[in-house]
Amino acid sequence: MKMTFRWYGRDDHIPLPYFKQVPGATGVVGGIFHIPAGEDWPEEDVKNLVEQANAAGLELEVIESVNVHDDIKLGLPSRDRYIENYKSTMRTLSKYGIKVICYNFMPIFDWTRSDLAMPLEDGSNALAYERDKVEGIDPNELIKNILEGSKGHAMPGWEPERLAGIKKLFEQYEGMTEERLFDNLVYFLEQIIPVAKECNIRMAIHPDDPPWSVFGLPRIVKNDADLERIIKAVDEPENGLTLCSGSLGANLDNDLVAIFDKYTAMDRAPFLHIRNVKHNEKGDFHEVAHKDETGSVDVKGIIKVLHKNNYKGYWRPDHGRMIWGEEGRPGYGLYDRALGASYIQGIWDILEEER
Ligand SMILES: [Mn+2]
Question: Recorded GO terms, molecular function (predicted)?
Fold first, then answer.
């Protein structure tokens, strides 16, 4: 499997060449964050992005994310224009060697946490989700908390410009059901998967984070049944999944090892996010180090099935803690992600030797 790191381009506090210094890292996962969702990505920006990575000796073959405009999720007549832009962006990306596009189909909020820097016992801090601090409050309050907690770092999915229209967005989603949202996803997939095929790109939908309804908004990428329904809806290899052990792992009912086994054996998961989360008895969770026993995720079990299935796709260590005094974008410090990367590769190396 190919190990990558998420890189935030010119907004990243980590100098690009540092990723190359993590043993085993072959590439970065990039994105363009200054173009609003729904707009066509300018070729010049894509070219610059890929060239910068390549100049640092890193591949850039995965994009995370090309965000889907809310009008597509809402199924409004204006969606066709945004889908045409999406197709055009796919063609541009393919021209510069992109092989996988990660995206999500969550209404309004891209991901949700109650705390971006919860102190842990060891003196580090990590992202956390407490139900009472999210599910009972005014969404505007949550937006304020997230933006304040981001310490000035751009937070993809939480763009202030877009969230300024939050009241209108909530009105538009009034009455939206899971069934209708799913139909809108299928409409989108039926349009873009043929383009993906022609571009040699695999689309990889990311699970909802957290994988349950928040603020009454529908969620359709929560569990094995949802994942299966999505890949069957347009049953082509280009219609793939990003399996994220943290997002899916936020619900203890999800059997992560079985899910990773099933979809990598089918070759329908071109991209993986691996991290660990720890649950408490109230159903809250926070993020922890990647090492297996620090959290609730069976990290070793996941790596074993990936090895068994001879996984050849891309993966990246997902959110880590902030350790050793590092300051930066919550979840995306270098140090703990590098520890996680080494830990996981260590497991892989032993499995390889035993084969
Ligand atoms: Mn993820």
Answer: ferrous iron binding; manganese ion binding; mannonate dehydratase activity
